[in-house]
Amino acid sequence: MPIIHKIKDLYKDIYQLGKIIPKRDKFGVYLKIESLCIDCLKLAISAALAPSHNKAPILHDLRVSIEMLKQIIRTMNELKIINNNKYFSLESSLIEISKMAAGWHNYVNKKKPK
């Protein structure tokens, strides 16, 4: 699944970001971001492996986690924990992942028997 690979690449970027995050922020907001990204990866894999009739709730949870990730990363940028270049890079990845998750969710919902 392409979304799984995108989330994995995002995690790599977030992991590398840990090298430049101040210690105070590393064990606070950064830890939450890293955890949320891993949760997104878990949800994407769970949805990929789930039977068709169980995918929609998992994909909804994935979309919520992605939106939370976007908001927390935006907050990190507003607090000047990360610079604009890193923020824009992460945000563009998140937008792409968000579109993929929304498309997958819409596809599953249209496919569901009523």
Describe this structure in words.
This protein is mainly alpha-helical and 114 residues long. It has one domain (2-111): de novo design (two linked rop proteins), CATH 1.20.1440. Helices cover 82% and strands 0% of the residues. The chain is built from five helices and no strands. The chain has helices at 2-17, 23-26, 29-49, 55-78, 84-111. Helix 4 packs antiparallel against helix 5. The radius of gyration is 15 Å and the shape is elongated. The mean pLDDT is 94.
Task: Indicate the low-confidence ranges by residue numbers.
Answer: none
The rounded Rg comes to: 15 Å
Number of helices: 5
Intertermini distance: 27 Å
Tell me the count of domains.
Answer: 1
Architecture (CATH level 2) name: Up-down Bundle
Which class do the helix and strand fractions yield? mainly alpha
The geometry reads as: elongated
How does the major sheet shape up? none
From the structure above, extract its key features.
114 residues; mainly alpha; de novo design (two linked rop proteins); 5 helices; 82% helix; elongated
Topology (elements, then pairings):
Layout: H1 2-17, H2 23-26, H3 29-49, H4 55-78, H5 84-111
